[in-house]
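Minimal example, chain plus arginine.
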Amino acid sequence: MDATSQRFLMCRPTYFAVDYAINPWMDPTAPVDADLAIRQWEQLRQTYRELGHTVEEITPVPGLPDMVFAANGGTVIDGRAMAVQFRDPQRADEAPAYRAWFEAAGFEMHDPKHVNEGEGDILLAGDLLLAGTGFRTAHASHAQLQEVFGYPVITLQLVDARFYHLDTALTVLDERTVAYLPEAFSPGSRAALRRLFPDAVHATMADAEVLGLNAVSDGRHVVLPAQATALAAQLRDRGYETIGVDLSELRKAGGGPKCCTLRLRQGKAGK
Ligand code: ARG
């Protein structure tokens, strides 16, 4: 299995907090260790660097505690960036901040016409754009994604509020393989996933409940929450190398390694 060197965008959790609740993981009355959150995030960044990936950083904005979840900042494929539109007003101001970053970085910009929470719900698997809906990203945005990026979009219906973004329920391991929690999808979407990925890894509820599927793969190494031990063993059986990271504090906002990481895919010329 070959690892592909990646370019990621991350946002330091300088202003991270759980001040509001927009998913079932968030409890604004529970304590969060803000310093530990930063150390855990630095460890994730270090892990990527050691794997040979490039990590770019966007400057965090005060008053936007969820901005650390860079996956929700956009969708970037073939040098084109689709900006985002959040469902919840608490996150709305993150959208222009990320948009400005993509523009300054030279990506061709496209603006969403409907709620679209970026790579939290939109995952490229080989030549297919897997697109979640049900909680955040609007179904109507899927058609726009196909027009902008020109990859066939597969709509997947999420049904469990704990797995509110596609990247909490499914992880892309390489061009042909995914891992997912079947129970997180509607019966029709589950059947579609079975047709598309007959060899997929099926995660257990216990692993999904520690956000184990919120993982980042370069095709060979899979960075995932350390607590997802059974999933890590399944992946190693398939020949992947697994690297566990502890993001316990960010999980209190409903996020894991993948949420903190936006993949920047250059155009052919920019490779
Ligand atoms: N608190 C954030 C929210 O509810 C967490 C986002 C996690 N990001 C992700 N890509 N799943 O929006």
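The chain has a mean pLDDT of 97. The first strand starts at residue 7 and ends at 10.
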